[in-house]
Design a protein that fits this description.
single chain, 535 residues, alpha+beta, Beta-lactamase, Lipocalin, eight-stranded antiparallel β-barrel, 14 helices, 27% helix, 27% strand, disordered N terminus
């Protein structure tokens, strides 16, 4: 039975919303009344602590949806519910990997097939890596590229890059590690994986995901590819923090475009859809059956959840979870928590955060969807829910983990020297005239560093939101991006090649600890001409 409750939360303004809670039959042993009250308190505490714009949480235990609750604003005129669409961001990766696993089951490809078998024109920077890169390598972050390499072709969105552009650009990205030597998170190769799936199946990636995933599992609200916001309806909009409060940011246009990053992070789903997704993984012989058979074979389930690439075992994992290993499978992160297996992933896009966590040996899992920049809130809520199943005797609360995170952040600010640029002023046309012009990078394309009125503006021609004002900071130049652009400022370091061929430009993050998707360090510009109309 579905119960609806009216609840109010004190935030910037008083927000009264509908909470959705699934009531279980009295004989169910999955979650007792007291347990549901405990989960409500966890939920309420995280909303209150972080004043989230919107939050949807669902829990599956022993094959049943035992808890589902959605609170907050989807947009300016609609409240969130269990059917509201959220960007699941990098939780799309597990779906791409699973569709590939279905193709392996169908005999249409093998994990160790070379990528060039399906995409003959595919190239990496190193010809040997091009020849040796296998389908499995596309999914496990071991290519030798630096973290986030090529991400500026994907974000900020929307932009003018096509999937073909992204794949072509990979040949210009120089590796920073040896092939298969270490883990470094990337998104671009998941786009290649999507095209491999398309080539092996004979249909576009988007059509394949609908046919092989959404339709058989009954994930009726999920969207991929191009669709119309108001026709689909009930779509959560992202929120960002400004001056201590959440406000809408990068709101969707009426038409949601078919973007290149779909296989890496472009799928949207509702809480109800995601609960069907995790139910299939937890009880494959019961959920998502097709003609009485599991959606994915036991062999491929094992492959997807097998450790393929070792990841760093952080001190926090040791301290919080008594973890002993950390690895990446095909689209999933793998670890142990309090002596039990954890299979999980997170998803992060500006203004949208998600988490999917499965505890197979506990026959339990949960989904978190937030339509706001809420890294700490996601970390805390995820951790408290994990402990709810793995170590209930510890009785860890939202406040306990939130306080730990705040203490970590305080220590980090004290102990680390982070780049701060407090004194800066707009660059004048006169002082930077010798460096003005049109520049080209092999994979990002052309950018203008040119006068606009009395200002000097950096603008990328294929990514309109990579645009900002050039500033002077001491003896250096940097770009302050406009509000819907990259979220980390960038240094501009000009140089003149010894051969006198012109002016070169390298870029780097002002904050070295900033999100790796601000992939400025992989750019290598050369000036190719003067600013239009400037003499």
């Amino acid at each position: 039975m579905l119960l609806r409750r009216i609840r109010c939360f004190a935030g910037v303004t008083l927000l009264c919303v509908i909470a959705i809670v699934f009531s279980l039959p009295a004989e169910s042993s999955a979650i007792s009344t007291n347990s549901k009250e405990s989960l409500d308190k966890i939920y309420d505490d995280v909303v209150a602590r972080y004043r989230l714009p919107g939050l949807a949480v669902g829990i599956v235990k022993e094959g049943e949806v035992v808890y589902a609750r959605a609170v907050g604003d989807a947009s300016s005129n609609r409240r969130i519910d269990a059917d509201t669409l959220f960007k699941i961001a990098s939780n799309s990766k597990a779906m791409t990997a699973a569709v590939l696993a279905r193709l392996v089951d169908a005999g249409k490809l093998k994990w160790d097939d070379p990528v060039i078998k399906y995409l003959p024109d595919f190239r990496m920077y190193d010809p040997w890596v091009t020849r040796e890169l296998q389908v499995r390598d596309l999914l496990i972050h071991n290519s030798g590229l630096g973290a986030g390499a090529g991400d500026l072709m994907l974000w900020p969105e929307p932009n003018l890059f096509t999937r073909e552009d992204v794949i072509h650009g990979l040949r210009f990205l120089k590796p920073v590690y040896s092939f298969r030597s270490r883990y470094a998170y990337d998104n671009s190769l998941y786009i290649v994986a999507g095209e491999v799936a398309a080539a092996a199946s004979g249909m576009p990636y988007e059509a394949l995901v609908r046919k092989e995933l959404f339709e058989p599992l009954g994930m009726t609200r999920c969207q991929v590819g191009e669709w119309k916001r108001d026709v689909v309806g009930n779509v959560a909009q992202p929120h960002v923090r400004k001056e201590g409060r959440y406000v809408p940011g990068r709101v969707d246009d009426e038409v949601i475009l078919n973007i290149p990053m779909a296989p890496a992070g472009g799928i949207r789903c509702s809480l109800n859809d995601m609960l069907k997704w995790i139910s299939m993984w937890l009880e494959p012989d019961r959920s998502g059956l097709i003609d009485g058979k599991p959606w994915l074979s036991a062999e491929q389930r094992k492959a997807v959840w097998s450790s393929q690439m070792i990841m760093t075992l952080t001190q926090r994992m040791r301290d919080w979870d008594d973890s002993h290993y950390s690895a990446y499978g095909y689209g999933w992160r793998l670890a142990d928590v309090d002596g039990t297996q954890k299979v999980s992933h997170t998803g992060t896009l500006s203004g949208m955060y998600s988490a999917v966590t499965l505890l197979p040996e506990k026959n339990a899992g949960f989904v978190i969807l937030i339509n706001g920049d809420a890294d700490d809130a996601r970390t805390v809520l995820n951790q408290v829910l994990v402990k709810y199943f793995t170590a209930p005797e510890q009785k860890r609360t939202v406040a306990y983990y939130a306080d730990l995170l705040e203490a970590e952040a305080g220590a980090s600010e004290k102990d680390e020297k982070k780049a701060e640029v407090r004194e800066r002023q707009p660059a004048s046309v006169a002082e930077i005239r010798s460096k003005l012009g049109v520049y080209r990078d092999p994979w990002l394309g052309e950018v203008d560093i040119c006068p606009v009125g009395k200002s000097v503006v950096f603008s990328a021609r294929k990514s309109p939101r990579i645009r900002g004002e050039v500033m002077r900071a001491g003896q250096r130049w940097l770009v302050e991006w406009e509000s819907d652009g990259p979220d980390v400022g960038a240094w501009l370091d000009f140089s003149s090649p010894a051969d006198g061929s012109g002016t070169a430009l390298k870029m780097s993050k002002v904050d070295p600890e900033g999100d790796f998707s601000n992939d400025f360090e992989d750019l290598a510009f050369e000036r190719i001409g003067a600013c239009p109309g400037l003499h």
